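Priority: medium. Attachment 1 of 2:
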């Protein structure tokens, strides 16, 4: 991937795009355990909040393909996925909101504004849907993500506490 190309953003419409996004997310996040937060535990992507599930790609594929699948925005550079965002729209809640479930950019494509473009496009889609709030969660140790989202005017509003009740 070269930084000369402008990324092309598109919402995933096919199962093939969704499978490719699952492969992409698995490859990118697997290298960074600080990415793990309570959402990854809740969706069985991490068994313990420290390690990724060994079958992470298959689990993501099941999450991304199907009737209840999140919306997926994919950024491509020269045809290859360079970044992606997974979003859930909760429009029937008393306060309609969006949840940015996941955001990842390939290490070789970072520092070229792709994450910023993905967030801006997600927020634009939220406004089009008349959604007034976006939420996201991030692993405690994922300081780079925290700094990035703060520059995008996201602010902490709570802490999530967890307690494991069953054995390892």
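Attachment 2 of 2:
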């Amino acid at each position: 991937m070269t930084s000369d190309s402008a990324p092309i953003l598109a919402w995933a419409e096919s199962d093939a795009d969704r499978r490719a996004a699952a492969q992409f997310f698995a490859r990118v996040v697997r290298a960074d355990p600080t990415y793990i937060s309570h959402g990854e535990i809740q969706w069985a992507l991490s068994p313990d909040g420290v390690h990724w599930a060994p079958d992470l790609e298959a689990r993501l594929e099941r999450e991304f393909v199907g009737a209840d699948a999140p919306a997926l925005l994919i950024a491509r550079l020269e045809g290859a996925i360079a970044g992606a965002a997974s979003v859930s729209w909760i429009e029937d809640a008393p306060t309609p909101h969006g949840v940015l479930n996941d955001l990842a950019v390939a290490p070789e494509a970072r520092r070229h504004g792709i994450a910023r473009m993905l967030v801006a496009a997600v927020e634009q889609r939220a406004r089009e849907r008349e959604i007034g709030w976006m939420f996201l969660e991030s692993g405690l140790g994922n300081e780079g993500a925290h700094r990035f989202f703060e520059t995008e005017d996201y602010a902490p509003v709570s802490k999530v506490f967890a307690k494991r009740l069953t054995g390892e």
